[in-house]
Amino acid sequence: MMQRSHPSRRSMACALVFALAAGTxxxxxxxxxxxxxxxxEPQNWLTYSGNLSGWRYSPLTQITPANVEDLELQWVFQTRxxxxxxxxxxxxxxxxxxxxxxxxxxxxxxxxDAATGRMFWIYSAVISPLARVCCGRVNRGxxxxxxxxxxxxxxxHLIAIDAKNGKPRWDRAVVDPALGYSFTLAPLVVKxxxxxxxxxxxxxxxxFVAAFDTATGTEVWRFNTIPAPGxxxxxTWTDAEKTAWKTGGGPAWVTGSYDPALNxxxxxxxxxxxxxxxxxxxxxxxxxxxxxALDADTGQLKWHYQFTPHDEFDYDATQVPxxxxxxxxxxxxxxxxxxxxxGFWYVLDRTNxxxxxxxxxxKVTWATGFDExxxxxxxxxxxxxxxxxxxxxxxxxNWYSPSYSPRTGLLYIPSWMDTFSRYFKVPVEYTEGRQYVxxxxxxxxxxxxxxxxxxxxxxxxxxxxxxxxxxxxxxERKWEFRMVDVTDSGVLSTASDLVFAGxxxxxxFALDARTGTPLWRASVGGQVSAGPMSYAVDGRQYVxxxxxxxxxxxxxxx
Amino acid sequence: MTGxxxxxxxxxxxxxxxxxxxxxxxxxxxxxxxxxPAGDALxxxxxxxxxxxxxxxxxxxxxxxxxxxxxxxxxxxxxxDQEAAHVVAYLRNMSAxxxxxVPTVLRGAGDPARGKALFEGKGQCTTCHRVHGRGPRLAxxxxxxxxxxxxxxxxxxxxxxxxxxxxxxxxxxxxxxxARMITGRLLNQDSFSIQMLDSNERLVSFQxxxxxxxxFIRTSPMPSYRDTLTMQEVxxxxxxxxxxxxxxx
Lengths: 558, 249
What we know:
The complex is a heterodimer.
Chain A: H1 7-28, H2 32-36, E1 57-58, E2 71-78, E3 94-96, E4 99-104, E5 108-113, E6 119-124, E7 143-145, E8 148-152, E9 157-162, E10 168-173, E11 188-190, E12 193-196, E13 208-213, E14 219-224, E15 257-259, E16 264-268, E17 290-295, E18 301-306, E19 322-328, E20 331-339, E21 344-349, E22 355-360, E23 367-370, E24 376-378, E25 387-389, E26 403-405, E27 410-417, E28 421-423, E29 442-443, E30 464-470, E31 477-483, E32 492-494, E33 498-502, E34 507-512, E35 518-523, E36 533-537, E37 540-547, E38 550-556
Parallel strand pairs in A: 1-32
Antiparallel strand pairs in A: 2-38, 3-4, 4-5, 5-6, 7-8, 8-9, 9-10, 11-12, 12-13, 13-14, 15-16, 16-17, 17-18, 19-20, 20-21, 21-22, 23-24, 25-28, 26-27, 27-30, 28-29, 30-31, 32-33, 33-34, 34-35, 36-37, 37-38
Chain B: H1 3-10, H2 17-30, H3 32-35, H4 58-67, H5 81-92, H6 94-100, H7 112-120, H8 145-148, H9 151-159, E1 171-176, E2 181-189, E3 193-198, E4 203-207, E5 211-216, H10 231-241
Antiparallel strand pairs in B: 1-2, 1-5, 2-3, 3-4
């Protein structure tokens, strides 16, 4: 039949297709220049946190405090199968020129029409049965450069995927899943490298942050978060056997940030191994529970700050580093804001790691304050019969993204308020591939909320959840939006002074960014364990949130 | 399969206290993160009650512990046969171990037949409690109480009912803006609303904005049997309660 087609019509059709393809091609190439200037294309969401400074802030202004009550559901996208209990839907979508890319748990990538929710393609990574993750078969999202998407998998692969057809371009086995290494974070693209760190802090891994060539998948540099003998920082592992560092933990399972002027990429690191008995690993255990500032070209450590030296409470510092330029005590400074799992929120100088301020944002009993160098004064430790400690093992916050609005100047923190755990010290031995933790602490709140409907029958004194807003200039808390249940939701702020978030209760809601007043809510019927994001198609602003096993997308009623 | 694990399995469910204790240690460090300290954190899985999604025999469970369940959140674990068998030993005895220690003799469990008569007669338990589909729904359903609560706790509940009230069993009360007072069981609550079973066994839902007050009642409405039953009668009642394992005999 093809031979009988009219030649001239066929070539016309070809020309048309080619022109369309060329147009799309130019538009869809996400250069690193575009990522650096993400604020100039507010219709798109090009990185996990929306910009490289970790703000989770949308410059879009169509949805406002005055009209937010007119938000209505536009479309939903359901995951392919009923999610397993631990397959929480944690991903933040990317949106590029009308196409949304996200990851269904554990490692299914989809491209969706961002205006209608209809699917272009799906790519399902084949996951090794050896994959083991402490806390859920999850993935928090993708990175993009050019027309290539990047995903880390729970069996330790880093995969480059063609954004046009969902076909893998390269697939690199980076770490051994049988030893408990996995990837759950959204990668970070800096220049022509894609940067990742592993999960696995409960399996006695040796953590790292590593950069890979985006074109080939070749590893370009690696910074080991647990220094080997002879490396700087190794002196903080003082066990007589000199072996603790090999299983020292320090994963890096939440996406970092990047400062192009300093050419530094900042990453938070997780707990030392074993979690709840520090006796096998005496010393401060660098660089666990720290922020590390790495040269983006070489991976060399420029500075570090350790939030929780010799941690025995599982206080991972795996939060998104929030980079802010502001006047601090009369001086223009490049700052880093950090609400930590250990219950303190910090202001650091991101040029050199200097500790400027640390204040509790919930009840904290493990430390009483800081010395002049910013070292916390620790007063509690796990004991044989149990030690009661605030905040609880899941922390005062966790991986859930905070938000910073340059308009309000406020830092928004998803918070677990006044929660506590009892920590026990029991003997613990390392065995390859097995959890290396100690005894799980008691908690009124489960680490993972698994039933689809949130059943909440706790006493008020067990703690509560909140979105809190803090002013970094004064250290003052501006407001608190209080919830009965805790929250694993990230926070989004917008240029029209709205804050979006959700929680375990199964609501997605909007607050006034200046006062915390609730303005709108939707019952999404499942736990929100993801960060919201916002984008626009054809001039219409959307807000997207994953909850339960469904992605929900809202816009103003037309 | 090593000899030791084989022996354990061959003996059916007779494990030594040391096996159970060792299994408990393994469970706490490797399993409780997802399954919870009480084994009930995942829907459809209640380890303490022997309710598993897949596998029932000890051999099945050992295999699942070692290889995981591909495609699910259950990861493989590098336990030896013997170590996995210890975990199974713990699971089989979990509900008893949880607060009562490793069971040796069922201290204080009296005659079930006499206990049943007390339950339905002198004790007036059926006035409030439901067993195997009969009785009111407001107080805790006791159809599975023998599987879910260790024996010492049953004793304590009869003598001092407020001491061991479980989450979800606490009475709850709301007062509406128009001064109606409703008591019952709290089924769920969030920042904006409350769902409960009221004293007339109706499923009712309230918006908090329509309530003047709401909260738990900290004391149990159940009377203590310390002065109304003899210790032998309490033992007999407990002897009946421990037979309630969730199926209708």
